[in-house]
Structure formats: structure tokens, C-alpha cells
Here is the input.
Amino acid sequence: MRKGVVVNIEATLKSVAAAVEAAELMSGRAVDGCWASIGGNNIEGLISRGVVAVNGKSRENREISQKDVERVLEAARAVDFSMDRQILEVIPLAYKVDNQSGIRNPLDMIGVRLESEVHIITCSMTSAQNLVTCVNRAGLHVNGLILQSLAAGRAVLTEEEKELGVVLIDLGGGTTGVLGYSQGTPFLQAGIPAGSSQVTSDISIVKGVSLEAAEKIKVTAGCCWPPLLQDNPEDILVPGSGGRAPLTIPRIQVAQIIQPRIVEIFDMVREKIAPHTEKRVFGGGVVITGGGANLLGIADLAAEFFKMPVRVGSPLSTGGLAADYCNPSFATAVGLVLEGGARENESGDHKKKADIRLPEFNFIRRFFDWIKREFF
Ligand SMILES: Nc1ncnc2c1ncn2[C@@H]1O[C@H](COP(=O)(O)OP(=O)(O)O)[C@@H](O)[C@H]1O
Ligand SMILES: [Mg+2]
Here is the structure.
């Protein structure tokens, strides 16, 4: 995948198949469905409004019913999109009943006119289809797609942070997701087509080492806040490849390569949140998650840059092999499990609604698996 979209179906489906196999081995359970996340700069968000007349629960009871709420959300969904976009999430932000605005949950209130304000998030249809095709060809069916940063937020943010307002930065390999919460709901989303893998290629180019060596340098000795290296300025030894002599690189030099790239990504994040900082407060500060959040000094640099309190967000423990997944790298995966589970509980009929499996691929794989089992 590159910048959040599938660029090589064959390679991506192999990765998916390998991940599923590992999960099956570890859990001792067969997996045939999944929730997949999608991110990147093919994602767009817009705020839309819908209005309906309240029907009430019955002729005598004019309280707003679940049906009214569903109708007013449906009305807000009626937005003109270009043909190549599909709706990924519809997030209710607030309701207005007659003249009273800012209502979180209008159920059971009495009124004549119900208005909704929703955050509609769309993604490119071809990007979504390519992703689903890959997963299907690896033998899995996709229960549904979930916005990447929304899943990560579910795993790492506290209710209090979401209430106070918080900016989630999901720093991945090829993409960085930004999700802004206000009064408990995500009202702002942006996908940035840059991420931590750029840091790796910078190190590789500037130091003339392979991408693998550069990645290793970043993960084991990388830092983006030089003051942290004052007491620990040792050199990094890179083994020479192809008969070349080994290389010694001062750690501070690597930090000087990494920092500007991270600042550049933060700059793009700031650009996305700047239009909102006047009207909204982010009392919960900034939370950074995703694999890139493991970089040494990232919270210090972000605090200095955004002038807000910053923490690194790891998934909170949900039992099991806690130590292994309580790492920012697994924020999206843990969030998908939590959010996917919640959506399945919410609507028992999710399979009917969101079944986007292409059945023939699944069938062919099962058929070959059967042949392999029976005859080889
Ligand atoms: N310990 C670490 N230090 C610095 N960077 C890391 C570390 N672990 C992972 N990364 C970086 O995180 C990125 C992957 O983030 P991840 O959230 O797993 O990917 P994505 O969300 O894009 O699928 C990679 O660029 C990787 O180099
Ligand atoms: Mg990630």
C-alpha cells in the first residue's frame, strides 16, 4: 500500500493472508470475516444538515421517536457527491428541536420540527473497492469499513478527553490521520499523505544506507527532540553492506534529519486544525498514536510545536495479552475490534447491510484449500 491506497493487489493480499493466518494460529479460532480500516487523503469530511417534521410515537404521543431520529439523519445524508465517492461514516453532531439548539439526544423530547447536524465522511469508491477486493481474495469477507483514525481514537482516547476537545494525530507509515473531537464527537477529520516512512527514506537518502538499515536506525536510535540525547549521545554503528566499510553515525545527526520531517507533518496538521481553533477549545490537548508515535521525543516536540499538552496514546488494556498490544502501533487494530464489535451488537443485521463480499473469490479459495487438504 502507498499513502493509504492499495497499489499492488497481489502483495497486499499476501500480507492480509499472512496476518489472518497468524491470528488464527494464536487464537485457535477460524476467522472468516473482518472489519477493515481506510485512511489517507482520499477521505473527505463535510458538515450537513437535515430537517423533518416530528411524527412522534403515535397520534396522541408527540415525543420524538427513534424513527424521527433515523429520518432526520437520513435527510442529512442526502448530499450530492460525485459518482466516485461513497459514504464511510455519518456522525451525528447535534440536534435542534424547534428553536432549541445544541441538543445531544432529542429522543423523547417534544417538538414539531427536528433538525440534525451531521459530519459526513466519504472515501474514494475505487480505493475502498480495491481494499475490499484484496481482503476478499485473501479469503475473508468484509463486515464493513471504518475510518482509520476513528478506530484509533476509540482505542486510545478517554471519554474525558473527547468531552474537553482533543486532536488525535494517527501517525502511520504512509499516511497521517487527524481527528478533532469537540463535546464528545469527532467534528473534524483530515488525511495527510505523509507519515513516518518518509523519515525512513530521509535517513536512507541522506546517509546513503538501505531502507532496511534506515528503518532500523530510526526504530532503535531515532529521536526527534535533541535535548533528550544530551546525556546519551552515543554513535550508531551501521554494518557495511556489499563489501562496504561499516558506518558510524552520531545519534544527534540522525535526530537532525528526523526532526524537520516530523515538523513538516505537524505543520500540515496545524493547517487542518487552524480554522477551528477560534471557535472550539481543545482542552484535552493532543494525543499522538500510530506506529510513528513510538519515536523518541515525539511528545516533547509536539508540545513545543502545538503549545498544548501532548501525550502518546496506547490502546487501553482490554484483557488478554495486554503487554503485547498496549502499544501505539496497534491502536487502529484494537480500535477496529472494539468498534466492529460495537457495531455488530448494535445491528444484528449488519451482515445483510454491509456485505460487500465478492463471493466467487472466497469460493475459489475454499475450493483450492479443500483440494489441498484432500489430495496433497
Ligand atoms: N519504535 C518505533 N520508532 C519509530 N517509528 C516506528 C517504531 N515502530 C514503528 N514505527 C513506524 O511506524 C510506521 C507504521 O505505523 P503503523 O501505524 O503501524 O502503520 P499504518 O497505520 O500506516 O498501517 C512505520 O513507518 C514505522 O517505521
Ligand atoms: Mg496505524
